[in-house]
Amino acid sequence: MVAEPQFDAPIPGMGMTHELGARPWQNPPLYSTVDEALDYYIPRMASDDFSEQLMDVMEMGIPLTTLANTVQLSGVMDGKHSADVGILIMPVLIEMMRFIGDSAGIEYTTGLDKDKGPRSSLVTKAINKLRVEEQNEEATPQEAEAPAQEELPMEMPDEPQPSGLMARRA
Amino acid sequence: METNVGPRGYFKTEGLANELRNRSVQAEPSGNGLLRPTRRQNPMTPELEDSPAVRVAEYFNTIRDKRMEINGGRTTV
Question: B44 CA to chain A: closest CA distance, Å?
Fold first, then answer.
């Protein structure tokens, strides 16, 4: 008689986790539809507290797609909605962030593939940083150059030894 | 490995939102015959209306329109 495979055995590491249902995302989500989830997110995103923090982060050059992903992932972890609802609402979250950024007149990075190159403000910042570094280098006396290291003679590789099973040993 | 599906989802939803907008434009009653439909036809079937992706696209269109109003009709993507 052939033993039937057991598929209900615990997976490795299961004993080190919480029991099923102990985490928020293992319970039924609070908002089960996209409408409910967006009713939860949109007023919060439109609030002054969130907008100010969002604008700070946007000015740092963090892509909006990354921010939206983080927001929806935290909603999944809090048990607000399921992962698939989170993925579905992500475009609306991105669009809402763009709306907030445009209404505040902030230059932001969307993180979409159509973005061409880095933002001009970031390039300017990098150029300024380079100039400051150059000025600092000019101000400090240059250290005496270390003597050039003598080049070591390159070791010639030995002739390839036969390595097969039937090869003769030296 | 793709760790953030945001860009892909954004472009899909944008395409769907554009398609919905085109459908609503095409659904205007046309012609001047006696038997022409006098009421504007609903471009979406009930199944389509119930689809979460379509509802998301409608939200997307609404917010994008507001954003375009701010930008004076130009998009920044």
Answer: 18
**pTM attached to this predicted model:** 0.65
B32 shares contact with chain A (CB less than 8 Å): no
- What was the pLDDT predicted at A37? 96
Nearest to B14 by CA among B72, B69, B70, B53: B53
Lowest mean pLDDT among A9-23, A89-103, B10-24: A9-23
Q: What span, in angstroms and rounded, lies between the C-alpha atoms of A116 and A119?
A: 8
3-state secondary structure string across A8-61: CCCCCCHHHCCCCCCCHHHCCCCCCCHHHHHHHHHHHHHCHHHHHHHHHHHHCC
For the segment A87-97, what is each residue's pLDDT rounded down to a tens digit? 999 999 999 99
Contacting residues of B for A38, CB less than 8 Å apart: 59
Task: Give the separation between CA B7 and CA A47, rounded to whole angstroms.
Answer: 25
